[in-house]
Design goal:
six-stranded antiparallel sheet
C-alpha cells in the first residue's frame, strides 16, 4: 500500500519524463490474504502484494500503453518511452477524447483500518470456527475467505490528480450433508470487519443443508418466488446485469431493452414496479464505492431507476459529447432500495411459493431483452401457508430482470452483497422450465 504522497511522487516523475502531447498514468496496488478449506480441512492459505503502473501517451489521436511494476527512475523512463513508441505507430482513435483537467471528488468511507490489519491468525480462526461448527453437526464445510487493502491513483499531464484507498473482506461457505444430498450456502462481504461472523454465516448454511435433504420434485411452471440477495447479485447476477445494461450508447444505437422504436431511449418512462429504485452512491456507508473511474471522471450519486421510472443512463465521455449530455462516472457499485421485511416475514406472507437461496450458471438467451437461463442451487424450498413445507429439487429458470421487476410482490430489507446493497425480493410468475438432479 502506498500513501497518497508516495503514489503521487511516482506519478509526478512519470509526467516529467514524457514528451507526448498528453500523458496519463494509473498506479494501483493491492495486498490480499486468503484461506481456503474443503471437507472440513484447510487446503490452502496465502498472501499477495503487488503494485503496478500503466502509462498511456498520446500524439494527436494516436495512443500507446506500457506497464511496469518497478519504480526506479530508469524503469519509469523506459516505461514512458515505450508508451510513446507505441503511440507513434498506432492508428488514430476515431473516438479520442482529450484528457480531463483537475476534478473535485467525493469522500467515501471505503477504507477501514480494522480490515487492513487482518492477520493470518484471524483467517485461521474464522476457518476454524466454521469447520468446528460443521464437525459438531456431522456436516461438511467448504469455504473461502479473502481480505485485502488496495489503492488507486491517477495523474495526467493536464493536472488531474486522484487517489483512493479501499478495504474488503469476502467470505463464502457451502455446507453439505455427509451423503451429499443436502446443501446450503451463505455469503457476505464487508468494508469494515466489525460485523463479520464466520460462525453465524456457517450456521445459516448448515441449517439449509440439513433442511434440504430428501428434496421432492415439483412440476416446472410459473411460481411466486422469494429470491434471497445471493440469488439476485453475483458476478453475473440478475440485478447486476440489469444495472450494467443502462448504457446510453447501446440504447441510442437500438441494441438495448432501453431503445425506443424509431430511435431514442426510454429515459423518463415507467418500466418497473414503483417499489423499484436503484441508484449509484459511492459514499453509501454500508456499500461505499470508487469516487472516480479509470479516466479520473468523478462518480457522484445518480438515480438509475426511481420508483419504477428510468431516470438516467450511463454516458461515456465520447458518447456524452456526441449526444450533448453529461458524462457519467460509474465504477460498478449500486444501491437498490429495500423495505423493512426480513426473509422470514416474506415467507410468512406467502401462501404458495418457492424460496431460492442462490442462482448460478447464468447464461444469456436474448441479450437485448436481458432474458437469461440458469439453475437454482444450495437450498431450494417449497412454501405453503406461510411456512417452508419441504425442500424441492433444483430447477432451471428462464427469466429477464426487466420482466421480473414488473412482477414485484414485496421488497425486503436491503443487505450488502458483492459491494452492493440489494434486498430480497418476492416475485410472482417466475418461470421455471425443467428439473435438475444437481444438488
Amino acid at each position: 500500500m502506498l500513501s497518497k504522497d508516495e503514489a503521487q511522487t511516482i506519478l509526478k516523475k512519470v509526467m516529467s519524463f514524457t514528451t507526448a502531447d498528453e500523458c496519463e498514468a494509473n498506479l494501483n496496488g493491492t495486498t490480499r490474504g486468503n484461506v481456503r478449506y474443503a471437507r472440513n480441512t484447510v487446503s490452502t492459505a496465502g498472501n499477495t502484494d503487488n503494485v503496478s503502473l500503466a502509462v498511456q501517451c498520446w500524439f494527436g489521436k494516436r495512443s500507446g500503453v506500457a506497464t511496469c511494476n518497478q519504480f526506479d527512475d530508469a524503469t519509469l523512463r523506459r516505461c514512458v518511452q515505450r508508451a510513446e513508441e507505441i503511440a507513434r505507430l498506432a492508428p488514430e482513435d476515431p473516438e479520442y477524447m482529450p484528457r480531463l483537467g483537475p476534478q473535485q471528488y467525493l469522500t467515501a468511507p471505503s477504507f477501514a483500518q480494522s480490515t487492513a490489519g487482518i492477520t493470518p491468525d484471524f483467517r485461521a480462526k474464522a476457518a476454524g470456527d466454521s469447520i468446528a461448527l460443521c464437525q459438531e453437526k456431522k456436516l461438511t464445510a467448504a469455504g473461502y475467505l479473502e481480505d485485502g487493502s488496495s489503492f488507486a491513483a491517477i495523474r495526467n499531464s493536464k493536472g488531474l490528480e486522484a487517489y483512493q484507498q479501499f478495504t474488503n473482506l469476502d467470505f463464502s461457505v457451502t455446507v453439505r450433508t455427509p451423503d451429499g444430498t443436502g446443501s446450503g450456502y451463505a455469503v457476505a462481504d464487508y468494508t469494515d470487519i466489525g460485523k463479520f461472523d464466520a460462525q453465524a454465516l456457517t450456521q445459516r448454511a448448515a441449517t439449509k443443508a440439513a433442511a434440504s435433504v430428501a428434496a421432492k420434485a415439483i412440476e416446472p411452471g410459473k411460481y411466486t418466488v422469494i429470491l434471497e440477495p445471493a440469488a439476485l447479485v453475483s458476478d453475473e447476477g440478475l440485478i447486476n446485469r440489469l444495472v450494467w445494461a443502462f448504457d446510453a450508447r447501446e440504447a441510442d444505437e437500438g441494441r438495448s431493452f432501453l431503445s425506443k422504436k424509431g430511435g431514442g431511449t426510454r429515459t423518463g418512462e415507467k418500466m418497473f414496479d414503483p417499489r423499484v429504485s436503484i441508484y449509484i452512491d459511492p459514499t453509501n456507508p454500508q456499500a461505499p464505492g470508487g469516487t472516480f473511474d479509470n479516466e479520473g471522471l468523478p462518480v457522484k450519486k445518480l438515480p438509475i431507476i426511481e420508483k419504477g421510472v428510468v431516470k438516467n443512463l450511463y454516458y461515456s465521455r465520447y458518447w456524452a459529447q456526441k449526444s450533448k449530455a453529461q458524462p457519467t462516472g460509474f465504477t460498478g457499485n449500486f444501491v437498490m432500495e429495500g423495505g423493512t421485511q426480513s426473509i422470514e416475514e416474506l415467507i410468512k406472507s406467502t401462501q404458495k411459493g418457492i424460496l431460492v437461496t442462490r442462482l448460478w450458471y447464468i447464461r444469456d438467451v436474448d441479450p437485448q431483452s436481458l432474458l437469461v437461463t440458469g439453475l437454482t442451487r444450495d437450498g431450494t424450498f417449497y412454501i405453503e401457508n406461510g411456512k417452508i413445507k419441504h425442500p424441492i429439487k433444483n430447477m432451471r429458470f428462464n427469466e429477464s430482470p426487466v420482466i421480473m421487476l414488473n412482477n414485484v410482490e414485496a421488497v425486503g430489507r436491503a443487505q450488502r452483497l458483492g459491494g452492493n446493497l440489494v434486498p430480497p425480493l418476492k416475485i410472482r410468475d417466475f418461470t421455471f422450465t425443467s428439473l435438475s438432479d444437481a444438488i
